[in-house]
Amino acid sequence: MGRIAAVDFGTVRIGLALTDSSGIIAMPFKTIETKKTLELTAENILLHLSPYMHEMEKIIIGFPLLMNGTEGEMAQKTKDLKIQLEKKISLPIILVDERLTTAQAEKDLKEKKISRKKRKKIIDPIAACLLLGNYLEKENL
């Protein structure tokens, strides 16, 4: 088993998380900027993941369903980002329900008394890490 990357896609920032090389432990990786187009955004994601691509098994992307389970505007943008990534790499790219991961990350950081300024800088990779951890748990059931 190789690494799995998780992408928490947002309109301004993107959180990235990675597993260890054995694909068992999820770790926050970094925050990157969303670019002007989805094509440039996909390229930016792959640029930051490039040191690990030779070990990568798959990429998961948080799929932002609405609380009632339907797809909104951001869900469509996420599908379009997936298409752009698939044009550039041959790895499997999987959409994974991400409802409440950012809210959970925010709650966890508040409980740890992390300042709002610092939370803003680290929230996205933490949310991606929660997404990845949830995915790993479901896959190993």
Write the SSE topology:
Elements: E1 3-9, E2 13-19, E3 26-33, H1 38-49, E4 56-63, H2 73-88, E5 93-97, H3 101-111, H4 116-139
Parallel strand pairs: 1-4, 4-5
Antiparallel strand pairs: 1-2, 2-3
Helix pairs in contact: 1-2, 3-4
Description:
The chain has 4 helices and 5 strands, in the order E-E-E-H-E-H-E-H-H. It is α/β, with parallel strands linked by helices. It has one domain: 2-Layer Sandwich (Nucleotidyltransferase, domain 5), CATH 3.30.420.140. A hairpin with a 3-residue loop joins strand 1 (3-9) and strand 2. Helix 1 packs across helix 2 and helix 3 (101-111) packs across helix 4.
Structural class of the helices, strands and pairings? alpha/beta
Mean pLDDT over the residues: 90
The fraction of residues assigned to DSSP E strands is 15-25%
CATH superfamily caption? YqgF/RNase H-like domain
Question: What is the CA-CA span between the terminal residues?
Answer: 16 Å
Order of helices and strands: EEEHEHEHH
Summarize the structure.
This protein is an alpha/beta fold and 141 residues long. Helices cover 45% and strands 25% of the residues. The chain has one domain (3-139): 2-Layer Sandwich (Nucleotidyltransferase, domain 5).
List keywords for this structure.
single chain, 141 residues, alpha/beta, Nucleotidyltransferase, domain 5, 45% helix
